[in-house]
Amino acid sequence: MASHSAQISPDKRFIIFFDFDETIVDETSDDMVVQAAPGQHLPGWLKDTYQPGRYNEYMQRVLAYLAEQGVTESDIRGVMEKIPATPGMLTLLQFLRTRPVHDFEVVLVSDANAFFIESWLRRTGSRQLFHRIFTNPATFNRDGRLVMRPFHSHDCPRCPDNMCKQVIVRDYVSRRTQERGRPYQRVFYVGDGANDFCPALSLGPQDVAFPRRDFPMHRLITETHEAMPGEFKAVTVPWVSAEEVVQRLRKLVAE
């Protein structure tokens, strides 16, 4: 799913990409949905069907099981709405919301799904901030089951079958640069996971990666700097609280 908002102003100076799970919210939404299940856990036979690299297919089975157990759309929405934001994240979203209109184009790239993400963003009043949301499509069918589909297919060996965030980021920045007739001054990427390292690899030396400190994305950047100096080009600003991201963005916007 790649949802649109209204026409994007062509003269935004910067673009900032966000991951969702453990970046905007302080949990993994796929794990949290289990709280809607009977007894707040999944049966062993279902957990045993998971295969590495096939997580999207596994989640489709989980969602089918929840529907069979009578879990409703409002049950799932209620669980999503209660997930806490990561430290300082609401401050960062508010900072972006109150910037001049020409500062930031804001994009979300997540391997969660559209229903989980939209539920949380609407509850916090953050939906309108995001110009685009790239995630796995998910809609309720007539039987009340949340049906999720893979976002796309790709050839990247680093990423799960259904989503390579580098393909999404590269394609989007390239297309928007063509539409605008000029590049962004800087590209920013805020994330935490191993699948956020892949898109951050495509950033240039004027861009900034904001990995959550000591999470997989941060560790992979550190390991790459040690093993292959020069391979990872972006400036790296690790964060524990997203208020640290605000502080760096304030400086860069003022330049």
General description of the model:
Belongs to the HAD-like hydrolase superfamily. PHOSPHO family. This is Zinc finger protein 652 isoform X3. InterPro entries: HAD-like_sf, HAD_hydro_PyrdxlP_Pase-like, HAD_sf, Pase_PHOSPHO-typ. There is one protein chain. It contains ten helices and nine strands. It has two domains: 14-25 and 85-138 and 149-254, Rossmann fold (3-Layer(aba) Sandwich), CATH 3.40.50; 31-81, no CATH class. Helix 4 crosses helix 6 (114-123), helix 7 runs parallel beside helix 8 and helix 8 (194-200) packs across helix 9 (216-227). A seven-stranded mixed β-sheet has the order 1-4-3-2-7-8-9. Strands 5-6 form a two-stranded antiparallel ribbon. It has helices spanning 29-32, 44-47, 55-68, 73-81, 89-97, 114-123, 165-180, 194-200, 216-227, 243-254; strands at 2-4, 14-18, 104-113, 132-136, 138-140, 146-148, 186-191, 208-211, 235-236. The radius of gyration is 18 Å and the shape is globular. It is 38% helix and 16% strand. The protein is of the alpha/beta class and 255 residues long. The two termini are 35 Å apart.
Biggest sheet record: 7 strands, mixed
How would you write the strand order of the largest sheet?
Answer: 1-4-3-2-7-8-9
- Corresponding CATH superfamily of the largest domain: HAD superfamily/HAD-like
CATH C-level label of the largest domain:
Alpha Beta
> What's the number of structural domains?
2
CATH architecture classification of the largest domain: 3-Layer(aba) Sandwich
Terminal Cα span: 35 Å
Shape: globular
Structural class: alpha/beta
**Helix-strand topology string:** EEHHHHHEHEEEHEHEHEH
Low-confidence stretches: none
User: What is the overall number of helices?
Assistant: 10
Helix content: 25-40%
- CATH topology title of the largest domain: Rossmann fold
Rounded to the nearest angstrom, the radius of gyration is 18 Å
Q: What proportion strand?
A: 15-25%
Please, what is the average pLDDT?
Answer: 92
The number of strands is: 9
GO molecular function: metal ion binding; phosphatase activity
Organism: Parambassis ranga
Active site: 19, 21
InterPro entries: HAD-like_sf, HAD_hydro_PyrdxlP_Pase-like, HAD_sf, Pase_PHOSPHO-typ
